Amino acid sequence: MSETNAYMMVGERMCMDFINTVSWRESDEKRRDWFTSYDKLVDWCIHAEVLTGQQARTILLNAKEKPSEAGEVLKQAIEMREVMYRIFKSIPKEISPNPLDLERFNDFVSHFYQALQVIHENHHYTLKFKHTERNLDIMLPPILQSAVDLLVSKNDLGRVKQCEGDACGWLFFDTSRNRSRRWCSMADCGNRAKARRFYQKEK
Q: Are 46 and 53 in contact (CB under 8 A)?
C-alpha cells in the first residue's frame, strides 16, 4: 500500500484497518508507521470511527497535561498492533501463531477486559467497556474487541487474507462471495500487479 493512500480503510474489519496503519510493512526501505505520535493515533481513531470528535478532543486535552502517559499509551497501541499483525498473518499461512505473541495478546485481553461489564439500556443488555473519556487508552478496548471477535469466529477466520502485492503486507477480511479477493486494493496493489504483468508480456 502506497503512502499516498494514508487512512485508506480496506481491511473490512476494525482490527484489520488498525493493523494496516503501517505502509509497506514488508519493505525495509519504504516501510512507514502512521502512528508517529499520540495525536496521530487519535486522528486515525476519529477517521476509523473508534472515537467520536468529542471523545478525541477530551483525551487530547488530557494528553497535553500527561505527555508521558500519552507516550506510554502510544507504545502500548503499537505493541498491540504488532502482536495482532503477527497472529493474524499466521492465519492465511495456516500455521500456528507464536506462543509468545498469543501470550502477549492475552495480556491485553486480561488487562482491558477487567473493565468489561453488562449494561442494561434501551430494553437490551450489552457488553461495554467501563472507561471514562479521561482514559488516554479509551480507543484500545474496542479495537481489541474487534480482534477477539474475529479470532473466535469459526466461520469468518478463513476469510482473513494478506495482500499479494510485493512488500505490501496489509491484511484484510475477504467479503467477496467466492473468496477470490487477492489485493488490499485493486486500485493500488492490484493495478500495480496488472501493470507488471502487462510489462512482462510486452517485453
A: yes
Q: Do residues 142 and 14 touch, judged by C-beta distance below 8 A?
A: yes
pLDDT in tens, 114-140: 888 898 988 999 888 887 667 999 999
Neighbour tally for 192: CB within 10 Å: 16
pTM: 0.88
Look up residue 98 and give its DSSP letter.
P
Distance CA 129, CA 118 (A): 9
Spatial CB neighbours of 23, under 8 Å, sequence gap ≥ 6: 1, 2, 3, 6, 30, 31, 32, 34
Alpha-carbon distances of 30 from 55, 98, 124, 161, 167, rounded to whole Å = 33, 26, 48, 22, 9
186: left (phi over 0), alpha (psi -120 to 50) or beta: alpha
Q: Which residues pair with 118 in a beta bridge?
A: 127
Nearest to 2 by CA among 152, 140, 187: 187
Using CA of residue 17, residue 1, residue 172, residue 26, what is the dihedral sign? negative
DSSP H or E segment with residue 119: strand 116-121
Q: Beta partners for 33? A: 22
Position 116: which residue type?
L
Which residue is it, cell 486494493?
185
Position 27 confidence tier, pLDDT thresholds 50, 70, 90? confident
